[in-house]
């Protein structure tokens, strides 16, 4: 699986890609992530990637030409038809885990990171296969969305997780040592200003060793 990211802020990605499971997946060649600087596909001296919106209004709009050139070049590098071009925009279709699973079967994902002021609509209509949003809030641009999608798609790949079934495991409430945690103070949620010691215990059923009961408890405490 190859991720090709088109952005005007390539440095946003460096910490994200160099830590933890993602860096391991890159080292193991489970995934390839390449960051591409949009200005490399401009021809003018100032490497212009945006312009004033037709019809007036504030802000600048990303031009279609550099994006089209970038996508064409990146598509031609992967000889597979299992490739998709995604434009990130708050106006897009909502991303979810089902899409992550579907996309994890592709060979190439090309991500176009717009900035929030906008991208020439011809990119959404003719260059991108899909326009995607990651939630009902506005970000400065598609970079954070791209990172969220890279991580969720990668988690669906066989061998990405340590534990074969943890990618799809339903999340349930969990506890670890200590079994009893005594706390004094007023930082506890909804407990007023009383300075009384509060004893926080791990639910007894988890210590019981009764796996049938533990599974039942987990089902009742999952997302
Ligand atoms: Cl994909 N982009 C921007 N700019 N804002 C968003 C988003 C994307 N998804 C949610 N908010």
TrEMBL record:
GO molecular function terms here? tRNA (guanine(37)-N1)-methyltransferase activity
Q: What InterPro entries does the database record attribute to this sequence? A: Alpha/beta_knot_MTases (IPR029028), tRNA_m1G_MeTrfase_C_sf (IPR023148), tRNA_m1G_MeTrfase_TrmD (IPR002649), tRNA_m1G_MTases_N (IPR029026), tRNA_MeTrfase_TRMD/TRM10 (IPR016009)
Q: What is its EC number?
A: 2.1.1.228
Keyword field contains Methyltransferase: yes
Question: Which terms are listed as keywords in the entry?
Answer: Cytoplasm, Methyltransferase, S-adenosyl-L-methionine, Transferase, tRNA processing
Residues annotated to bind S-adenosyl-L-methionine? 114, 134-139
Example GO biological process:
tRNA N1-guanine methylation
Q: What is its main location?
A: cytoplasm
Q: Where is the tRNA methyltransferase TRMD/TRM10-type domain?
A: 1-221
Locations listed in the record: Cytoplasm
Q: Does the keyword Cytoplasm apply?
A: yes
What reaction gets catalysed by this protein?
guanosine(37) in tRNA + S-adenosyl-L-methionine = N(1)-methylguanosine(37) in tRNA + S-adenosyl-L-homocysteine + H(+)
**What Gene3D superfamilies is this protein classified in?**
3.40.1280.10, tRNA(m1g37)methyltransferase, domain 2
Task: Name the family the entry cites.
Answer: Belongs to the RNA methyltransferase TrmD family.
Complexes and interactors? Homodimer.
Per its database record, what is this protein's job? Specifically methylates guanosine-37 in various tRNAs.
Q: Which HAMAP family match?
A: TrmD (MF_00605)
Q: What is this protein called?
A: tRNA (guanine-N(1)-)-methyltransferase
Q: Which organism is it from?
A: Candidatus Yanofskybacteria bacterium RIFCSPHIGHO2_01_FULL_41_21
């Amino acid at each position: 699986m190859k991720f090709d990211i088109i952005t005007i802020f390539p440095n946003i990605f460096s910490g994200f890609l160099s830590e933890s499971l993602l860096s391991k997946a890159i080292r193991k060649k489970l995934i390839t992530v390449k960051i591409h600087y949009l200005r490399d596909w401009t021809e003018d001296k100032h490497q212009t990637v945006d312009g004033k919106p037709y019809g007036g209004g504030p802000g600048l709009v990303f031009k279609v030409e550099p994006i089209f050139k970038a996508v064409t070049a990146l598509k031609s590098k992967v000889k597979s038809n299992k490739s998709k071009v995604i434009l990130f925009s708050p106006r897009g279709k909502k991303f979810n885990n089902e899409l992550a699973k579907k996309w994890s079967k592709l060979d190439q994902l090309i991500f176009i990171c717009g900035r929030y002021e906008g991208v020439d609509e011809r990119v959404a209509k003719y260059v991108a296969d899909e326009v995607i949003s990651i939630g009902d809030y506005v970000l400065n641009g598609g970079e954070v969305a791209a990172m969220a999608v890279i991580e969720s798609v990668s988690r669906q790949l066989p061998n990405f997780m340590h534990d074969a079934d943890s990618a799809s495991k339903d999340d349930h409430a969990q506890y670890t040592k200590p079994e009893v945690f005594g706390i004094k103070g007023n930082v506890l949620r909804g407990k007023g200003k009383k300075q009384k010691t509060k004893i926080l215990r791990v639910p007894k059923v988890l210590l019981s060793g009764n796996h049938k009961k533990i599974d039942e408890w987990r089902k009742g405490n999952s997302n």
